[in-house]
Amino acid sequence: MKPDRVVVGTSSDKAKKVMTALYEPFVRQGNPIIFMDERSAEMTKYAANSYLATRISFMNEIANLCERLGADVDMVRKGMGSDSRIGKRFLFPGVGYGGSCFPKDVQALAKSAQENEYDFKILKAVMHVNDLQKEILSSKISQYFNDDLSGKTIGVWGLAFKPNTDDIREAPALTIIARLLHKGAKVKAYDPEAMENVKQIFGDKIEFSANEYDAIQGVDALAIVTEWNEFRTPDFDKMKQIMNAPVIFDGRNIYDVQVTRDLGDIGDEAFVSEVFTKYGITHVVHLAAESHVDRSIKDPLVFIKTNVLGTANLLQVAKNHWHGNYEGKLFYHVSTDEVYGSLNMGFDLFTEKTPYDPRSPYSASKASSDHFVRAFYHTYHMPVVISNCSNNYGPNHFPEKLIPLFINNIIQKKPLPVYGKGENVRDWLYVEDHARAIDTILHKGKHGETYNIGGHNEWTNIDLIKLLCDTMDKKLGRSVGESRNLISYVTDRAGHDLRYAIDASKIEVELDWVPVETFESGIDKTIDWYLNNQEWLEHVTTGAYQEYYQKMYQE
Ligand SMILES: NC(=O)c1ccc[n+]([C@@H]2O[C@H](COP(=O)([O-])OP(=O)(O)OC[C@H]3O[C@@H](n4cnc5c(N)ncnc54)[C@H](O)[C@@H]3O)[C@@H](O)[C@H]2O)c1
């Protein structure tokens, strides 16, 4: 304990001596022990806590006004706090104060004022602002969803009234959760220490999660309610992947708005335009896409929105920002071999001249985006380049695609759902080879040209799956053939393209790129990565993933 000061209320000389002896070891650096009468001492405590509560409510009102005026309250806070007359502390706006001291002391002081017929206007306002403040976050969430929270799930990070405690007395989280439930939302919550206490209040009306990422699996939005340190630097990419929508209500202003904004949507013109202005973008390497064929069959419109409209938006913003001055500029669009349709078994290969013949909503949306990129080249003379690549594999791959999905299932000893007879052929390329190809094309590609990228590595699905089974049996110390027993054949994917195979001679001859990873070494590295990163795998395969998996393979 290192008190700034010790305040003692007593008029007894004996008590003064005892208290001095008691507290002196704690104020060796000269901080004062202040003696006064009992009433003044009591008032000092109430006044100090009420003043700090007043600063918080004041800042909360400043924050609300900043929002209306378009000012950044975080900058305002920094500006105010560096004035030594004001000081930095207790200026953080948020969802309101709680805990054992502030609410109790403010109320006690207000009550004393009332009993003594004194109208303490500021204190009443402080309490009123704090009550309203606790409701602001839930109101914002509700407004965002057009006042209809039925069927929505909201993740809540933080339940304690402040970090590093399990204290939930007067905690804003309680008001926020009660209001969300009242409006029909489901709530998934996580707090490092306070969950047991909150269970006493909400019981099974809300779901408690094992960690912060579990609490946002499949949620429609996240509310940050307590500023625990572990919430300050999360893996935003992972969050985006596991949440239904990347919507965060930051009740404690812990994230830099710019950082979260930079993770925005390519279809959002204002956002993309802001990024172009802020960073003076000269080169676009466009990979952002909805990318999974199975998902596109279930929900084609999302693919049109991101892949077609999103790409058109990027092109349009680039055109507007570059103003026809295309010197030193490039729009590089990363596409897929699936735009060419399907090959028969045999020796035919997709070349850059193969006519487009997309068969799935995914490939149709990518084909459409390729056309828009070429249209901007021909119509506006924008420097563009396109590459169409075969199937990638490697570490960090989300387990909805074949290789990571099957590695995960083999680890879990779950059935391996093979479409049809597993005869479909894909040409597999290690992801780092694709990345090197992108780098090569970015620097050496000829404007207006298209380059096919492939691994000369055709595998039928069933042979690939058997290879995975056998390699993993060895690595996991399982008996020979054990994982092959997990193979189960399921109804074929609608419109399943039979064979893709790339002729990559153009990029090899003209730009001097060749794949360097052999399939054996690439698969080996990939499996090792998944075996060494099972925590990552567990995080991304709970919640929303489970629902998705059920829908895709078990309906
Ligand atoms: N993986 C392959 O085998 C393969 C092969 C050929 C081409 N491609 C192409 O490469 C690109 C990347 O593929 P991937 O396999 O890494 O896909 P992925 O689905 O793993 O990653 C796509 C990324 O795009 C982002 N994204 C999606 N919608 C967005 C939006 N509206 N605004 C901003 N970002 C958005 C996602 O958050 C994600 O980070 C895609 O364009 C895909 O068509 C992939």
From TrEMBL:
Q: Which residues of the sequence carry a binding annotation for NAD(+)?
A: K104, R169
The answer to whether the entry has keyword Membrane is no
Q: Which SUPFAM superfamilies match?
A: 6-phosphogluconate dehydrogenase C-terminal domain-like (SSF48179), NAD(P)-binding Rossmann-fold domains (SSF51735), UDP-glucose/GDP-mannose dehydrogenase C-terminal domain (SSF52413)
Keyword Ligase present in the record's keywords: the answer is no
Q: Where does substrate bind?
A: K45, F90, L91, F92, P93, G94, G98, K162
Q: Protein name, please?
A: UDP-glucose/GDP-mannose dehydrogenase C-terminal domain-containing protein
Tell me the first and last residues of the signal peptide.
none
Active site feature: C101
UDP-glucose/GDP-mannose dehydrogenase C-terminal domain span = 155-257
Any one GO BP annotation for this protein: nucleotide-sugar metabolic process
